[in-house]
Amino acid sequence: MSKVIYEGWMVRYGRRKIGRSFIHMRYFVLEPRVLAYYKKKPQDNQVPIKTLLIDGNCRVEDRGLKTHHGLMVYVLSVYNQKEKYHRITMAAFNIQEALIWKEKIQFVIDQHQESQVPNGNKYVSFEYKSGMDNGRAASSSDHESQFSAQEDEDDSNPNLLRRTTIGNGPPDSVFDWTREIDLELTNQNANNQAFSRKHWRLLQCQNGLRIFEELLEVEYLPRSCSRAMKAVGVVEATCEEIFEQVMSMDGTRFEWDCSFQYGSLVEEVDGHTAILYHRLQLDWFSTVVWPRDLCYVRYWRRNDDGSYVVLFRSRDHENCGPQPGYVRAHVESGGFNISPLKPRNGRPRSQVQHLIQIDLKGWGVGYISSFQQHCLLQMLNSVAGLREWFAQTDERGAPPRIPVMVNMASASVSSKKSLKLQDSSAHHHSASLDQINTAGRNSAMLDEYSDDDEEFQIAEDEQEGISQYEALEEEPGDKIDLSWFVGNLRYDEREKARDCWKVSDGNNFRVRSKNFCFDKTKIPAGKHLMDLVAVDWFKDTKRMDHVARRQGCAAQVASEKGLFTVVFNLQVPGSTHYSMVFYFVTKALVPGSLLQRFVDGDDEFRNSRFKLIPSVPKGSWIVRQSVGSTPCLLGKAVDCNYIRGPKYLEVDVDIGSSTVANGVLGLVVGVITTLVVDMAFLVQANATDELPERLIGAVRVSHIELSSAIVPNLDPS
């Protein structure tokens, strides 16, 4: 067997002919002449799913950032220049891993180039470094130039720069403020560039940040547009870790950006450019001042010195029109510049610059200067938030996420004043913030049961005409008809609904990742394995066991339809006994899967693996602290009774069997009508071949009324 240069789990990324993207976890192995990937870690002489011969004609390209159901992955494409359609596209959930693979593959290619060509010429492509870019630091995200030389061309021209990445570069409308020093030195006569000379003065020091204000007055901007301001601070983290936080727009951002309310993807232009929708959370007289939102183009790149640049500027988009209840602000220029510093006491350090020049619009902005400045400082304080977030957390392995925009286009500009937010039970039509989040954060399917890596795959170059929205839609399938099933607890998707249930988004829960055995990282859970079809809320004078035997219940209906059901019966003791019963249905269990082993295993195995992840999104502080969000092996904490029927498995969970659980119940039951509770059920994965963990299902119950419980008829006759 050849020497292995590098190996590990990565993501197979691609698109099918219908335009839908897919990602699969695969084990990649890089050898001196071959890049291959396998479904599992190879043993003995296992045949790989696909191989690519590596020689001096190969290239590794940075495809940038791609979004798959809200999950962001960093994509690399490896191909032979003489056979461009024979390629391997791989991706990583974090940019550090992508950079390592890129470096290792490039090292192998370089070795072939040096050894195969006797006259010293190399199999490389070049880019002409034009006069307008002189003095510009080489960036690993700029696009390939039209002046690329042939693959056998000599490497002697000093103005030719070797390229290993692609991307369309920053849009013309986006001003790159991070290059202002170079522009000043090289373009002294460029008097048509409004920002060719920038001078800053220190305005104040706040929260450990230096806040600067631009001294230059710009004539063409409206009076309501602020001067550019930037915050400069030091964060004890690597540039890659900070960059991933800046790029994400999921729930983690609330922990360090106090001006963030909601963000989503409007359009993915390419791997380095995207159109985003962003709602601001500004606290300046919020009862009087209307909230602001933004639609802007975001461009990013990684420079050769290891620094990252993220730029943004407002723009209009047909799918992101004005939203009712919001004033559309305008970002003239802004972004982040993240640069590495020398480590101190063994800790990595990075300098973070955050620049904003914004017109918040509205009638009073040009006359109340304190409003503009207060909001700017609030936004710039995100740098301090980043510093404190990294100082206070060790959980840095989560992949960044960004929700996909759903139905945000206004009907027409002329009628925008008459638009009103409408309630709807459908995910993709709801305008409430939480429901938009739920719809946008669709799960990423890490399909471990599929061998169709190459089936229907099309080259990246053929995908430019495919709509990003079509690419991110769920693949149509033969879904279970939920109208077959009835439970006595009402189903309601509305945000403020009471005494009801709905399906909780799997990405609200963190589960063990594919590499958990090695690095203990956790990831958003993603799509459920089974569908929650009904919930029953029962009461009786005694404990209610084996409720699945009840005629007409969801488990019996599913059995008649040839479906399999897992029933979770949470039993709450007291003078009146209560049971909340959840029915999760699937068409069939996958043979050999962890779920199938749980269903057909013995009670000892089930007790060692049956896990619950609780959460209380809404409730008093004491209840939230008592319940927590730590996963719990229910089979070890309380008594669980397993009943295996012909087409179902029922798990009766006696919460009263634990004194600790009883104490928590005493708090919860007394205030149950004020609570919103999330619960996720899963089988714990311990071995590498069982990872990543997948949820059986998850539910959210809201403001439950004890009086709505009914007495069930458990007599089979």
- What is the count of β-strands? 32
State mean pLDDT (0 to 100 scale).
Answer: 76
- Category by helix and strand content: alpha+beta
User: With helices defined by DSSP (H or I, 4 residues minimum), what is the helix count?
Assistant: 14
Strand content: 25-35%
Q: Layout of SSEs?
A:
Elements: E1 6-15, E2 21-30, E3 34-38, E4 50-53, E5 58-68, E6 71-80, E7 83-92, H1 95-116, E8 126-128, E9 160-162, H2 180-186, E10 200-206, E11 209-214, E12 229-235, H3 239-247, E13 260-270, E14 273-280, E15 292-302, E16 308-314, E17 327-328, E18 330-344, E19 347-359, H4 369-380, H5 382-392, H6 433-440, H7 468-472, E20 490-491, E21 500-503, E22 510-512, H8 516-519, E23 522-524, E24 531-540, H9 554-560, E25 564-572, E26 577-586, H10 594-600, H11 603-609, E27 610-618, H12 621-627, E28 632-633, H13 634-637, E29 639-644, E30 648-654, H14 659-670, E31 676-683, E32 695-702
Summarize the structure.
With 717 residues, the protein is of the alpha+beta class. It contains 14 helices and 32 strands.
Describe the structure in your own words.
The longest helix is centred in the N-terminal third of the chain and has 22 residues, at 95-116. A hairpin with a 3-residue loop joins strand 29 (639-644) and strand 30. The strands form six sheets. Strands 10, 11, 12, 13, 14, 15, 16, 17, 18 and 19 form a ten-stranded mixed β-sheet that branches. The protein has a seven-stranded antiparallel β-sheet with strand order 4-3-2-1-7-6-5, covered by helices on one side. The protein is of the alpha+beta class. The relative contact order is 0.10. Residues 134-173 are annotated as: Disordered. Residues 3-110 form the PH domain.
